[in-house]
Amino acid sequence: MEAIGNYRFEVKLSADKLEAVIILRAEEEDLDNILIRESDVYEELRKHRVTFGILDNVVQDLCTLPRKFVHAQVTVARGLPPVPGTDGSVEYPYLDSVREESGPKELEDGRVDFYNLTTIPNVVKGQLLARKIPAGQGQPGKSVTGEPIIPKAGRDVIIKPGKNVVQNQERTMIYAAIDGQVSFTDQDKLNVFPVFEVNGDVDFGVGNIDFVGTVVIRGNVLNGFRVKASGDIRVLGSVEGAELIAGGSIEIKSGIVAQDKGSIVAGHDVRTSFIQNANVTAGNQVIVSQSIMFSTVRAGKQILCKGAKGIIIGGVLQAGEKIAARVFGNTSATPTVLEVGVKPELRQELVQIQKELQQVYENLRKTDQGLSVMNQILQTSGELPPDKKMLQIKLTNTRLVLEKECKTLEARKKDVETELKGEGPAAIEAYHVMYPGIKMTFGKLVHFIKHEYARTRFVVLDGEISTATLI
């Protein structure tokens, strides 16, 4: 701070150096005699290393109307903020219609075309399935002192090949290795599976099915039967109290009436028209066009029941990100439990991976110690006895196995941490009405609905469950 004539300047920089302010200090009796030259202002700025983004009009005003600026904090320079990089992404040239589905499509006559919603495209060997779009690096900024500001790079995306697909050398594209149908399995791995079709019901004439691929059933799945597929399961009829297990998605055109028997488990999505007295689990989303009644439904990300009749009554529903429906509950206040915002299976897996990694690290340390002893013997005597030689070979092979195991665990740990970091704010959305009788849980926060809410979104804000009106 230096005095210049009968006034002085103060120059302050913001913490990020993207803004500089100037304050004119002068006594009241000196205001009429103040004469400020622009060169004096620029010189004062230079003393504070402010050389970029200077607002010339502010400098001119300061010199013309100094009384206006006395003891006032005025922005005199603005830097250029950095532009953060865009996050990486994956394009699916032939799968966009599958990946971008958010609900059933409505036909011109008002009916819901649920069958076409769940179509899985056939692909041929060599067909491009996925293309990685790299993360952007952003554009650097510049501080008022002229220094470059490094932008935050976009978050990279991991492209995940599964079964019967190949990648290019750069690992930026995935191609089909066989003819078949595309299936996304756990952790969004992309696969191509062959197809097994049943032209009627799964009954005593067909028996249980266990197929390494995608299963298409053109009838119903009856009580007590089991269908297992490493890819997707598509049922054009209904499912009763049966057991369906798919590594990919499960799509049931006519709905599920389980009578509290059997279970539906999908690594990716479950799509159907209604769920009644059933146990349904999906790694990603559960998408229902009509109703979920008195069922236990779990989804890693979202449970959506947003059709024209979309209603959820009774049961327990758990989702990592969101539960949304047109109507929750009924006028009889039927008990219904909604839980969002928790991914316990992922957190448990992360703890287990960390334990396994610690054990692998310890085994690697012991193996390296043994190899170090062998090397010391070799350097001292010039050769190893036969028994020591065999031990060296065994330790070397053990280390190769441990290194491979370590890389696998570290890669999975990174995937799990990325998924947990990607958790957005959890929400419960009622697009028409939510009736009393609902118990909602956001992590450790619990709230009981005691009166009706119309078009309401429930979220956690500042540690409390709050509401907002849906437009």
Automatic annotation (TrEMBL):
Coiled coil: none annotated. Residues 9-186 form the Flagellar Assembly Protein A N-terminal region domain. This is FapA family protein. It comes from Brevibacillus brevis.
